Amino acid sequence: MSRSVFSYRRWIGILVKEFIQVKRDRLTFGMIVGIPVLQLLLFGFAINTDPKNLPTVVYAADSSIFSRSFVAALENTGYFKVTSLAPNEAEAQRMIAEGVAQFVVTIPADFSRKLARGERPEVLVEADATDPTAVSNAVSAVQRIAATALTRDLQGVLGRSIPAPPPVDIRVQRRYNPEGVVAYNIVPGLLGTILTMTMILMTGLAITRERERGTFENLLSTPALPIEVMTGKIVPYILIGLIQVALILLAARFVFGVPMQGSLLLLLGVVLIFIAANLTLGIMFSSIARNQLQAMQMTFFFFLPSILLSGFMFPFRGMPEWAQWIGNVLPLTHFLLLVRGILLKGNGLDVLWPQIWPIVAFMLAVILIGLRFYRRTLD
Amino acid sequence: MNGNSGPAIDVTGLNKHFGAKHVVRDLTLSVNRGEIFGFLGPNGSGKTTSIRMLCGLLTPDSGSGTCLGFDVIRETAAIKREVGYMTQRFSLWEDLTIRENLDFVARMYGMHDRTRVVAEAVEELGLADRRDQLAGELSGGWKQRLALAACLLHRPKLLLLDEPTAGVDPKARRDFWEEIYRLAAQGISVLVSTHYMDEAERCHRLAYISAGTLLAKGTAAEVIAAQHLTAWSVSGPDLVEVVDRLRGKPGVEHITPFGATVHVTGRDAAALEQSLKSLTLGPGHHAERIDAGLEDVFISLMARAPDEARQ
């Protein structure tokens, strides 16, 4: 009887065959080399869990040297960057709702007067805490400056010793998510990531599967029109996407207790636009990919930056400018702001528009690129 | 439009390129109503591309013609409605059941009495008790029968069958051809591509394509006669040695083993006979002149094709 012994030569033969096959599939080969290098560079430099220079709006009803020193002290922590001075309170509130500003600092009219009397004036620091991790370090930095911000001014001008309690009473208000519940941020965000994943992957696979198995030829030989085939194949996935949305929203409401401030109808509209953008990308991938594996790889290649650079996993404002630029191209980035804006802030269409048009623009660009690749017949 | 008079297929000078490759070259073909037309040629000779052009799946780069009276370039939608195309590879949905597949195809052709048509087709197939089985679980022979049933569902006037019997056992092949004859008797025209000589001989007429060029067409007898091929059958012991000595002799073009004999063929009858005579055959050897068969002709065509067909 012959015995089965591990054959080194056979084994080498299998290794060699495998390498040849990997090399042949150029897309896979590119991904093997490209993904680690690109992503290492991209995410290694882009991701920063301690965001600094967060955009801050100051509404100073008192424009004394004290308020200027206080603001300077805030900026010196490195966490705050005063991007504008609001002329009134309403304007400041609009900016935080829109997401243009992460913080609003309100200095009351009687700031210097109370300071002079040692009455500990209140300064209000409102943080957009929809993403609690993005503001937590900044918030703790605020507390530290209360004691030291005005030391020099007070000694110089009034020549008085600093009282044991800090001269300023800084009140921090975490807006939209006062308890800093991370789930309030993550659960609406999951809505976007899950839709991105399934919409792109499902449509990509559904179309390449037909081509890979040869059934596409059968479909094309029937009187079915290309538009019927394409839309007929996509609509079921829109419905699946809506079921996912419903499930996530139900869980958000009843399991995680996420507040729902805004209009659900508006949310539905935004979700449909987002689904449409992802579907067009899925279709484009499917017309480039030669088989299901490639469609999957392309989806993955798009999905990773989507979760890492969109502000879903890491604070968007912590990223360098170039990474924010890439992030701004991705529909997920805008969708996250839209969903958080509607659910947590109760924003309306007027405030949301700046985040809607980039998604539509993305979709149009993909359609334009996709048309170049679309193969109508088997030609 | 007229769908019932004139030839089923009548095309002239069809050309198709894929990139720099000239896949089909000046294809001129005519298939009569109710005719079974065989389409032969080696792998990669352009058979599938030709068939796809005929049923509107590919647009020819140049050329013109009609399929069931409809223009092959402008009226592909009408052609698709009246043609049944069976792809080379099983192309129904393996993750749908037999009934679901047929039902889907019936919907694609917009059939109104879908339920009845599908039930009848399942019954005719003899698969009534297995109609809820997944198509992917069927054996090769059954898949082929299902595929044929699917492309007959909408009562096409022309069937385009691309190597329908590849990988199917002899019994299933014979049943399949009985079905084809039955359909032709009903007036359905059939264009079938094949590699099998016995199937080629069953066709009313046939065409041979190689490297994109049509090299021969007509009835089997006409195709054979047109090649002016002389064939000899040599039998006896140690044929391998005989073959070695024959190779390269004047007039000897092809030597093909046929079981216990070898066929020696060539177009120059006199030279071939001379070569065989001059060969001192052993006592058990026997050489006789036979009628060249289709297979002899195709082997001869296949070997000559590259030089004659390219450029």
Amino- and carboxy-terminal Cα gap of chain B: 39 Å
Radius of gyration of chain B equals 23 Å
The residue ranges of chain A in which pLDDT falls below 50 over 5 or more consecutive positions are: none
**Quick check: average pLDDT of chain B?**
88
Biggest sheet architecture of chain B: 6 strands, mixed
CATH architecture of the largest domain in chain B: 3-Layer(aba) Sandwich
Structural domains of chain B: how many? 2
Query: Could you list the spans of chain B in which at least 5 consecutive residues all have pLDDT below 50?
Result: 307-311
Ordered list of secondary-structure elements with their pairings:
The complex is a heterodimer of chains A (379) and B (311).
Chain A lengths: L7 H17 L1 H21 L7 E7 L4 H12 L3 E6 L3 H10 L4 E5 L3 H7 L4 E7 L3 H17 L2 H8 L10 E7 L6 H32 L1 H7 L4 H29 L9 H25 L3 H18 L11 H9 L1 H15 L3 H25 L6
Parallel strand pairs in A: 1-2, 1-3, 4-5
Antiparallel strand pairs in A: 3-4
Helix pairs in contact in A: 2-12, 8-10, 8-11, 8-12, 8-14, 10-11, 11-12, 11-14, 11-15, 14-15
Chain B lengths: L8 E10 L2 E11 L4 E5 L6 H8 L7 E6 L2 E2 L4 H7 E4 L11 H11 L5 H12 L14 H13 L5 E5 L7 H16 L3 E6 L2 H6 L2 E6 L2 E6 L1 H7 L3 E6 L3 H8 L7 E5 L2 E6 L2 H10 L7 E5 L3 H16 L2
Parallel strand pairs in B: 3-8, 3-9, 6-7, 7-8
Antiparallel strand pairs in B: 1-2, 1-4, 4-5, 9-10, 11-13, 11-14, 12-13
Helix pairs in contact in B: 3-4, 3-5
What does this structure look like?
The complex is a heterodimer of chains A (379) and B (311). Chain A folds into two domains: 54-175, abc type-2 transporter like fold (3-Layer(aba) Sandwich), CATH 3.40.1710.10; 182-373, no CATH class. Chain A contains 15 helices and five strands. Chain A has helices at residues 8-24, 26-46, 65-76, 89-98, 111-117, 132-148, 151-158, 182-213, 215-221, 226-254, 264-288, 292-309, 321-329, 331-345, 349-373, and strands at residues 54-60, 80-85, 103-107, 122-128, 169-175. In chain A, strand 1, helix 3 and strand 2 form a beta-alpha-beta unit. In chain A, helix 8 packs antiparallel against helix 10, helix 8 (182-213) runs parallel beside helix 11 (264-288) and helix 14 (331-345) packs antiparallel against helix 15 (349-373). With 311 residues, chain B is α/β, with parallel strands linked by helices. Chain B folds into two domains: 32-54 and 78-219, P-loop containing nucleotide triphosphate hydrolases (Rossmann fold), CATH 3.40.50.300; 230-291, RRM (RNA recognition motif) domain (Alpha-Beta Plaits). Helices cover 37% and strands 27% of the residues of chain B. Chain B is built from eleven helices and 14 strands. Chain B is globular. The chains are: A alpha/beta (379), B alpha/beta (311). Chains A and B meet through helix 9 of A and helix 2 of B.
